[in-house]
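Tutorial, part two.
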Amino acid sequence: MSALILAALLRANLALVAAILVVLILRRPVRARFGALAAYVLWLVAPVCLAASFLPAHAPSQVLAPVTTLALAAAKSAAPLVHRAPVLPGLIIAVWMAGAVAALGVLIVRQKRFVASLGPLTPSQADSGLLLAARLDVGPAVIGVLRPRIVVPGDFEQRFAGAARRVVLTHERVHLERGDAAINALAAALRCLCWFNPLVHLAVRRMRVDQEIACDEAVVTRHPDDRRVYAETLLDTLMISHAVPFGCHWPAVGPHPLKERVAMLNTPSVSPARKVFGAALIGGLALVGAGAVWAANPRPPAPTIVKPDWIERPTGADLARVYPAAAAKTGLEGRAAVGCEVARDGRLENCVIRTEAPEGAGFGQAALDLTPSFQMSPTTLDGHPVGGGRVVIPIRFMVPAK
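Running the prediction step on this input gives:
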């Protein structure tokens, strides 16, 4: 089980890394061509591909399981095989889980420290939807996940007035309208689960930059005459930027994202038709990516058929014909089990030796030589075709009577 979980995690990370690389390459061209919101929505390709890696691959239509037992010469069962679970996959999973819990703990501590640093939060008398922080050096932010609220510095009402106040609040309310706080919480959870993957951490930072730029675009679309005021307000908040693990903080961290945001304010608005085309293009890219990931998922093994309806089986003469000559001379008896795929007409094909005892005595090859003498009814339980299924046949070899 540990090995299966580890393989699933590896596939998921490979799918996620491939999707992130594609988005990192396309985000700026998409923003330039279809607008900032399209570049932000483009990040949906990554979680869609991640989810596709966990989708079950297409399996044959038969719903049949455990092992078919058929014995010749009064055999009742094959000797069971004992497997020891490997230790390494379980150890790797334990380390991964410990790292994820530790990463989540770090984010929670950072969030608590940030909220505590704001001091007491009091509702604004001018706007009941705002909470005033005791601190003055904190930029407007959306805090929380389940009930996100807009928090502004204590001197917000004196410091921001007129158009500046209008664009700042529009920016934060766009975050609330789009559910960006919940999206950022999911991104933080993904960072915890993929704590060992530096590309995921880079992607989350870039996604949050694109999120802020998309909000900037919405602000200048709603208030096209306030571009200059908005740019000046962005510059005014450059020195009071802090990172919030769970929430949306305005502006994005660092001067380089700020340059991107100010540059966007001078970009001409994208036409509605181009925005629609961009959305359709991103949707198509997500579907193609998810389909490619799903197609690469390993196919489940063919179902093993229970209680097959045999219309042909080997006879005693067939058993005597294939019995290993050396074993027959010494009176040695043995066992073997073969696994075969079942063709649509009920014949066995692609048979392999599963077990034989004693080893090297030729009983495995003798069991393989018997498989052409088997044929199953073309249909089995509930009318399901047997084609594509598998069957395991344990055979006991007893010295033929002379």
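The first helix runs from residue 2 to 34. In part three we will examine how such features are distributed along the chain.
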